[in-house]
């Protein structure tokens, strides 16, 4: 039986391995990744599909602006283990993520993906034509889904990350930490 639940810190390694298997190293080259780097996903909107203690699916949502002053969430990446495909796991992850986002009062979702797959969840390119991403992308793959009617009407401009930044320690703290580790090794 597959369970959909919130991701925890214990899932991070398994999630990353799944994403590597499904999308490969090129996933870091995608323009949508520029909106996710150094950001935390939206609170409570990182979901895992688990079967027999193994992570078999994942989806995450990220805070962005769909042009100036137009809050939205960016969905992705969605991934399902190859051995578990065609069993509705991706659909369950999508429906759960969309449902949570709607209940939390978010207005719209954006993603870069296959329109034929995502249209069943209400995504289309109908209202994303005047939006841009911070890098190359295929226009027909920039899709939107309104959770509140009219929330994407008239959107235009650059989609930008607005989520909470992942705090990285300053470089001098990293160097001091490494020096401390080396000093402790020499003392032992």
The description of the largest β-sheet is: 9 strands, mixed
CATH class: Alpha Beta
Envelope shape: globular
For this structure, the CATH topology is Aminopeptidase
Total helical segments: 5
Low-pLDDT runs of 5+ residues are none
**Rg (C-alpha, Å):** 19 Å
Order of helices and strands: EHHEEEEHEHEEEH
Give me the secondary-structure category. alpha+beta
- The percentage of residues in β strands lies in 25-35%
Notes on the structure:
- The protein has a single domain, classed as Gcn5-related N-acetyltransferase (GNAT) (Aminopeptidase, 3-Layer(aba) Sandwich).
- It has helices at 12-23, 31-36, 89-103, 115-118, 171-187; strands at 2-6, 46-51, 54-66, 71-75, 79-80, 108-112, 131-132, 142-146, 157-161.
- It is built from 5 helices and 9 strands, in the order βααββββαβαβββα.
- The chain is an alpha+beta fold and 188 residues long.
- The mean pLDDT is 90.
- The longest helix has 17 residues, at 171-187.
- The N and C termini lie far apart (49 Å).
- Strands 1, 2, 3, 4, 5, 6, 7, 8 and 9 form a 9-stranded mixed beta sheet that branches.
Short recap of the structure:
The chain is α+β, with helices and mostly antiparallel strands. It has helices at residues 12-23, 31-36, 89-103, 115-118, 171-187; strands at residues 2-6, 46-51, 54-66, 71-75, 79-80, 108-112, 131-132, 142-146, 157-161. The longest helix has 17 residues, at 171-187.
């Amino acid at each position: 039986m597959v369970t959909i639940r919130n991701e925890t810190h214990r899932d991070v390694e398994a999630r990353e391995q799944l994403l590597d298997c499904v999308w490969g190293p090129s996933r870091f080259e995608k323009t949508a990744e520029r909106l996710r780097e150094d950001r935390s996903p939206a609170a409570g909107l990182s979901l895992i599909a688990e079967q027999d203690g193994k992570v078999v699916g994942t989806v995450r949502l990220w805070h962005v602006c769909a042009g100036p002053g137009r809050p939205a969430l960016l969905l992705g990446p969605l991934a399902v283990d190859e051995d578990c495909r065609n069993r509705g796991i991706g659909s369950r992850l999508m429906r759960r993520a969309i449902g949570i986002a709607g209940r939390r009062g978010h207005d719209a979702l954006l993603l870069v993906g296959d329109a034929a797959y995502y249209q069943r969840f209400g995504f289309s390119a109908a209202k994303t034509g005047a939006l841009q991403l911070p890098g190359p992308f295929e226009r027909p793959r920039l899709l939107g889904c309104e959770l509140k009617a009219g929330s994407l009407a008239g959107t235009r401009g650059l989609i930008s990350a607005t989520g909470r930044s992942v705090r990285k320690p300053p470089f001098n703290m990293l160097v001091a930490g490494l020096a401390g580790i080396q000093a402790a090794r020499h003392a032992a």
